Amino acid sequence: QVQLVESGGGLVQAGGPLRLSCAASGRSVSNYVMGWFRQAPGKEREFVAAISYSGADAHYADSVKGRFTMSRDNAKDTVDLQMNSLKPADTAVYYCAADYLLASVYIRMADKYDYWGRGTQVTVSS
To answer: What was the pLDDT predicted at 58?
Structure first.
């Protein structure tokens, strides 16, 4: 079993930065694809970013491309999401997710991830 705990959420003004972290425990996630998803009130959970096992490849939703950067540290079993130029539309609960050897064709699909954190709230004020 893998346990995921997100941190770093909070209230930020539009245009500002915020950095989210996700710490994994239970077993090493070095062979897991890691993803970030978000869910705003009244909306479905949506893909934000995902990163390959090695960290060499990262994929982003069009809505965050150029503003968000995902990274991982396999020695520490952590992943981060650096969010810059935040917009009120980025307001949501952000979830960290993991799946063992997930094929790249599935990385944007929430239902393909086996492990989830409880989420951290990000609120961007205008």
So the answer is: 96
